[in-house]
Specification:
- This is M50 family metallopeptidase.
- InterPro entries: Peptidase_M41-like, Peptidase_M50B-like.
- Keywords: Membrane, Transmembrane, Transmembrane helix.
- This protein is mostly helical.
- The chain has one domain (about 20-230).
- The chain is built from nine helices and two strands, in the order ααββααααααα.
- The protein has helices at about 1-35, 35-60, 90-95, 100-115, 115-130, 140-155, 160-185, 195-200, 205-230, and strands at about 65-70, 75-80.
- It has a two-stranded antiparallel sheet with strand order 1-2.
- β1 (about 65-70) and β2 (about 75-80) form a beta hairpin.
- The longest helix is centred in the N-terminal third of the chain and has 34 residues, at about 1-35.
- The radius of gyration is 20 Å and the shape is globular.
C-alpha cells in the first residue's frame, strides 16, 4: 500500500516536468530557427506576412481604406491604404509593421503559458485570413495560404501538447525574428522602408524610428521572458 502511494506521488510531478520540458525545448528551437540564416530566410516570409497584416489591421482601425498587399520573393512586402496623406492615421499605420511580429510572439508566449493556445490560433486565422483577399501577387497568396494551412492544421488535428509546443516555437521565432528584423534596419541601405517613411511623415530622423522599433522588439522579448517566469539568478553568498 505504501509502495503504491509512493509511485503515484513520483509519477505526477514527472508528467508536469515533461510538459514543461517540451515547452522549453520548443522555445529554444524557435529562437534557434531565427538565428540560423537558412531557416530564418524561409521563416522570414511568415514574419513579413504578420508585418503586413499589422499595417493592414491598424490602417483599418485608423479609418483608412485598404487597397492591396504584396508579399515579395525577397521577403519584403507592401501594404497600400487610402486616406489622408498625413496625420496620426498615417503615422500609426507605418508604425504597426515592425512591432507586429514581436507583439504576436509575446501574445503567443502568454497564450502558451496560460492555456489559451486555441484562442490565439483563432485570432491569427481571422486576421491573416482577412488579408488573403487583399493580396495582389501570386507569391504572396502562396505564402499566406501556407501560413493559414499551418494554423488550420494546428487547430483541427494537433493534440493539446503538440499545439502548445507549436505555439511556443512559433512565438519564440517571432520574438527573435522581430528583434533581428528591427536590428537589420540599421544595416540596410535601402531608402524605402518604414523608418524612412515615418521620417518623411513626422520630420523626425529615421534613426529615431529604427531605435524605437528595436526598443519595442527588445521589450517584447523581455516581457516574454517575464511571462515564462525567467528571473535573473540570485547573487550567491
Amino acid at each position: 500500500m505504501n509502495l503504491h502511494s509512493s509511485v503515484s506521488l513520483t509519477l505526477a510531478p514527472s508528467a508536469v516536468d515533461e510538459g514543461e520540458a517540451l515547452l522549453w525545448v520548443a522555445l529554444v528551437v524557435g529562437v534557434a530557427l531565427a538565428l540560423v540564416p537558412s531557416t530564418y530566410r524561409w521563416g522570414r516570409h511568415g514574419v513579413t506576412a504578420v508585418h503586413e497584416a499589422g499595417h493592414a489591421l491598424v490602417a483599418l482601425l485608423a479609418g483608412r481604406r485598404l487597397r492591396s498587399i504584396r508579399l515579395n520573393r525577397d521577403s519584403s512586402g507592401e501594404t497600400v491604404s487610402v486616406g489622408r496623406s498625413g496625420g496620426p492615421g498615417v503615422v500609426l499605420t507605418l508604425l504597426a509593421g515592425y512591432p507586429a511580429p514581436s507583439l504576436v510572439g509575446l501574445s503567443g508566449v502568454w497564450a502558451a503559458r496560460h492555456d489559451h493556445v486555441e484562442a490565439w490560433v483563432l485570432v491569427l486565422l481571422v486576421v491573416l485570413g482577412g488579408t488573403l483577399f487583399l493580396l495582389r501577387n501570386v507569391f504572396g497568396v502562396v505564402v499566406m495560404l501556407a501560413v493559414l494551412a499551418g494554423l488550420v492544421a494546428l487547430r483541427r488535428w494537433a493534440e493539446p501538447e503538440q499545439a502548445l509546443a507549436a505555439c511556443a516555437l512559433v512565438s519564440a521565432f517571432l520574438l527573435a525574428a522581430g528583434l533581428r528584423g528591427a536590428l537589420e534596419l540599421f544595416a540596410s541601405r535601402v531608402g524605402a522602408n518604414d523608418a524612412s517613411a515615418l521620417a518623411r511623415a513626422t520630420h523626425l530622423p529615421a534613426a529615431l524610428w529604427k531605435t524605437a522599433f528595436v526598443a519595442v522588439a527588445l521589450a517584447a522579448a523581455v516581457a516574454g521572458a517575464w511571462v515564462l517566469g525567467l528571473q535573473w539568478p540570485a547573487a550567491s553568498g
